[in-house]
Amino acid sequence: AEIRSGGRATPFFIGHGAYDEIVPLPFAEHSARLLAQLGVNVTWREYEAEHDFGGEALADVAGFLHRVMKY
Question: What is the reported pTM?
Answer without folding.
Answer: 0.83
